[in-house]
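question for whoever is on the cluster today: can someone run the full assembly for these? three chains, 931 residues total. i dont have access anymore since they changed the login thing
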Amino acid sequence: MSENNPALEVRNLSIQFGGLKAVDDLSMTIEKGALYGLIGPNGAGKTTVFNMLTGVYKPTSGSVLLEGENITGRSPTEINKAGIARTFQNIRLFKAMSVLDNVKAGLHNETHYTAIEGALRLPRYFREEKRVTEKAKELLGVFGLEKELDTKAQNLPYGKQRKLEIARALATDPKVLLLDEPAAGMNPNETAELMDTIRFVREKFDVTVLLIEHDMRLVSGICERVTVLNFGQELAQGETSAVLNDPKVITAYLGE
Amino acid sequence: MRKTTKNNLITFGGTTVLAVVMAVLSAAGALNSKTSGLLIPMGIYIILAISLNLTVGILGELSLGHAGFMCIGAYVSGAFSLVFQNTISPVWLRFSLAIIFGAVMAAVFGILIGIPVLRLRGDYLAIVTLGFGEIMKSIANNIYLTEDKNGLHFGFTNPPSGIDSETKRELLKGPIGMAAPQDTTIWAVIAVLLICLAILMMFIDSRSGRACMAVRDNYIAAQSVGINVTKYRLMAFTLSAAIAGAAGALYSHSISLLAAKKFDYNLSILILVFVVLGGLGSLRGSIIATIILYALPELFLREAGNLRMLLYAIILIVMMLWTNAPFGIRLRERILNSGFVMKLKAKFNRKKAGAGGAENE
Amino acid sequence: MSFISYLVSGLSLGSIYALIALGYTMVYGIAKMLNFAHGDIIMVGGYAAFLAMSASWCPIWLAMIISVTVCTVLGVVIEKVAYRPLRSAPPLAVLITAIGVSYLLQNIALLTQSATPKTFKSIAAGAPPFLLVFEGKAPLFFTKLSDSPYGGESPVLTISMETFLAIVVSLVIMAALTLFINKTKAGKAMLACSEDRGAAQLMGINVNATISMTFAIGSALAAVAAMLMCSAYPLLSPTTGSMPGIKAFVAAVFGGIGSIPGAMIGGVLLGVIEQLSKAYISSQLSDAIVFLVLIVVLIIRPTGIMGKKISEKV
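^ ran it for u. tokens below:
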């Protein structure tokens, strides 16, 4: 693993469901610290790519390299431990848990005591809980959720639920953060704020961001490079402004 | 102080005080024999209810085989006590070892059954645990353990072959059951209850408990933050089994003749009713619900045993509609937001502020 | 000879399981829930037929119609009152409700009919058994041994009318159900709902009506199973339905939940396994063996023999 490896490298990734090739021979290279967009019309296979990157689906062929390390075929848990965290298109919070506990659950592998130490309240429990709680509060502060620590996640308004999900993903201290339609359901003001937050997060947590988004203002506003998927295949790839002006891409979105 | 810690302390303290008061009243002869006689089984049911709440409320999986783990604990500990009846002399030591042995064996079975079964979820898991409970009951109903001068003989026929009839001592007698020494006292029940309650509370309010609840709320998201789903499912299931085993040990040492048919599906359902009425995930609720649902009908509805079962059935349905159906949720909100409740709340908050408790909400 | 007679009794029991399992599998396939009360609907069907038949004026065919009607209505009402409000609730809540309904039916029966078992009058009462005579290569059917051209010395297998009915009726019902689902509009609506309820709704299918219909059909089948079962095993009590119900669910899982031929195969296999283990291993442990089979099947092939993989959409 040399220093020069890209954060995430996808090589000839394909997956087949029955007779349908949902993603066909996709390759991308995402450099460290990049803000990269994965776009395309509905049903193009974007979320399927995320599911393969995070181990929810096993790719039929191809490989995924995280900072040069081949992580293809590992379980979702192992892939998160290796350094990829994600959010979901249809928000998946721990609904019945408090906002604070959602992030502390994200800090699970950062919390260093055993089940027995916890169940018997040995000293390390108190030390670690204190440290982890501080860390969680700090993270929630970044997203402006510090006033809602004890609120149940399901009672948060939609926009804050999206933010909490990003905070929880960041809690796992990822190298690469995958955001699945982070601006879905947000109004233009909220989207603008979200763009600032994503930029800030990249700097502060030193993380590479790959995001799926339909909101082209967000994509053109913050993504340096994009890949366009259409029917599971790569339609275009490159610098955002160039790709978005590519006639092929415009046709794919708007039709002939 | 944290809200969870405070809640736990209230529950634990309240349980301790209530249990000790009841035990002292009973010892002083202030309770009639009927009420006194209820205390030990009630304590055992409370232990079962809080342990099942770990599986159903915290882990979010319906186990219908809880009676099976109780059965293992009851039989293993009972056999242990019978075998060492004349060897280990202080009763408290023998009994403690029996309880631990029963709990450990129940935990071992929890792991053995959990590894294959916990790959399943929801309805499948429920039906398989139900099957497991029935298997345990059938096996316990058919085992014979006999001691003679050559040692212990174990088998599925009566008597196991090659028994020396002069020195034989039958310990487990198939469908007839087992007569373990009656070592269970109210103090033993209180001790086990408080230990189990403390362990459960501390487990739930820790990294492991959070992981279990995360799996319950959304296992895909739990995996995505690096939680080993299988590990925590197995851990909670096993802990729950171990505590049920300890309750079983208390049970087998509290009745004169234990028959395996007691540990059937209906017992598992009964415990589930306690857990559901008390609120999924709330240990305090489980304790209160068990007291209400077990003791009150025993005291006042004894004659109408069938009516009680009907009541349990209705509680299960109504509780689920009340907490989950859209009209139940609406009704609940309307009551909570009604003028009367609001006034009560305001009054309560003023009082709290007046007492100088600058709690931040 | 005895092996074959065990096998036949296994087939008969298995056919009854299969009928019950059909109800489970249809409801599971379409409403995506385990209707724990299904076994107790059988019990209600048994009592309905029993009470009707105990009135002297009521012929057997009318008792059967009454039983089927009672169960059908009961199934639809249960769905409407207890399950429909919970359609978007977590599965755990639905499952607990179903257990509550099961318990409710049992205890209502207990209060109104008492725990003492009733002796059910067979719907095939008086019908002579078949005798299957083995001689040379060709087995021959007779109703009286003296009709056999081989005389009275050949090995004989007796098949009671109840056994015969159980096997034939369940085969006919399965065939009819398969035709109904694949050939009629209502049946196709059921298939559509089981694939994707939301999409079915968008296509103009009345999802509520379809689910109600599924419960109606499943419960009607339960009534048929009740009469066959109570004829073959004539003791009727409030808990009559619970064990067969649970075993039939095992059969449905065994065959692959959601699959109609799977329910049939699973039911028959389970009945045969149960009767053979009763005969050759231990009658007390036969239930344990049935559940052991379930656990083993689910470990090796969680989707059952004919089932297909269901995975959650992420």
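summary bc i know u wont read the tokens: Residues 83 and 171 of chain B are 8 Å apart (CA to CA). Residues 3-324 of chain B form a domain with the ABC transporter involved in vitamin B12 uptake, BtuC fold (CATH 1.10.3470).
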